[in-house]
Specification:
The chain has about 350 residues and is of the alpha+beta class. It is built from 10 helices and 14 strands. The strands form 3 sheets. A 7-stranded mixed sheet has the order 5-4-3-2-1-6-7. The protein has a 5-stranded mixed sheet with strand order 12-11-8-13-14, with helices on one face. A two-stranded antiparallel sheet has the order 9-10. β13, α9 and β14 form a beta-alpha-beta unit.
């Protein structure tokens, strides 16, 4: 990893001040010769507090980027917890974390006369953003080097009052090995039309254990809500900094929290499956029906619930768990402020 090149490219990008003419919704993309995937980029700073560049990999990344425009997140923290990509931020020197200051200071590139210094982050759902590894930093350096030239040329396309996203357009630069390139205007809907999200569903149980549990467990004529949300404050464990995931099951009639389980984002689907089965086994009872508003959770437990003959329904909105989550978050914030 060439630290000097990385910081030189970051400085050159920053000196352009691209946020003066590009919005975060002006999506552009790069197809580089060293990499198989297309990388989608968004400039921060025109309306956002942060100045910088966000980077998303492939069509799944484009979907993630578009979600940041159209989804209604309850707060900034929830928004960050759903991100999967990279970011280059430019911060006032006095606001820069010491680690980032040290990296920039020892890179060999002079920033002493610069007001804004760069910091690099990798985002993964549920994990606290940290500095990327060397391979990812090399990728970011390449993107910065190509993006700087492309952004200058994007000025000629930025003539409408509408952003590229509002026009359903993404400008793509395909770079060849000899550094020649071709610019294309891509229709975003066309890029997404064949995309199918693939969710890997782990299995932490076997059919025999499900059959045994079904046979030996009483069915309650009850409907439970089930969903999960991130704990709002990070914790550190085994060198990883993450936001724990909190799984809740709530009886809709009594409005009582039946069970609660908190775990790491690592292999959380398996952890959920094991906890649910353990809860049913210990209480020798399970409901006849459960409802969830979380599509991923539905996929993680659907097959397991079929084996237990529990009706599982995916709904647009739950009534109890969001209220419990709000109370829980407010309580933690109050404790944290005291």
């Amino acid at each position: 990893m060439n630290e000097l090149k990385l910081y030189q490219f970051a400085k050159k990008f920053n000196n352009l001040r691209p946020w003066k003419w590009l919005f975060s919704t002006d999506i552009f993309a790069l197809k580089m010769p060293k990499y198989q995937d297309i990388y989608f980029c968004s400039v921060l700073g025109n309306k956002e507090k942060e100045l910088g560049l966000t980077i998303y990999k492939g069509i799944p990344g484009l979907v993630n980027l578009i979600d940041t425009f159209v989804k209604g997140y309850e707060n900034y923290n929830e928004f960050l917890l759903c991100q999967q990509g990279f970011a280059v931020y430019f911060n006032d020197k006095s606001d820069l974390p010491k680690e980032d200051y040290d990296y920039a200071f020892t890179s060999g590139e002079c920033f002493e006369d610069e007001k804004l210094w760069p910091a690099f982050r990798v985002y993964k759902p549920g994990f606290y953003p940290v500095r990327p590894n060397d391979n990812d930093l090399s990728l970011i350096a390449d993107i910065l080097s190509y993006a700087t030239d492309f952004i200058v040329d994007l000025k000629q396309y930025n003539v409408s009052d509408e952003s590229f996203f509002e026009q359903n357009i993404c400008y793509l630069r395909e770079i060849n090995k000899d550094n020649s390139y071709v610019d294309k205007s891509m229709v975003i809907e066309d890029m997404l039309k064949d995309y199918q999200r693939i969710l890997k569903v782990p299995v932490a149980y076997d059919e025999l254990s499900l059959a045994r549990l079904k046979r030996n467990t009483k069915k309650l004529n009850q409907v439970w809500e089930i969903s999960y949300f991130y704990y709002p404050y990070p914790v550190e464990q085994d060198g990883l900094i993450f936001y724990p995931i909190n799984l809740l099951m709530v009886d809709t009639e009594s409005q009582r929290v039946v069970a609660q389980h908190m775990c790491s984002p690592l292999k959380f689907a398996e952890s959920f499956q094991k906890f649910i089965l353990s809860h049913f086994n210990q209480n020798i009872a399970m409901p006849t029906e459960m409802v969830t508003d979380n599509e991923d959770l539905f996929c993680y437990i659907e097959s397991m619930y079929k084996g237990l003959a529990i009706k599982l329904t995916l709904v647009d909105k739950l009534f109890l768990i969001p209220h419990i989550k709000k109370q829980f978050t407010e309580m933690l914030e109050k404790q944290n402020n005291n």
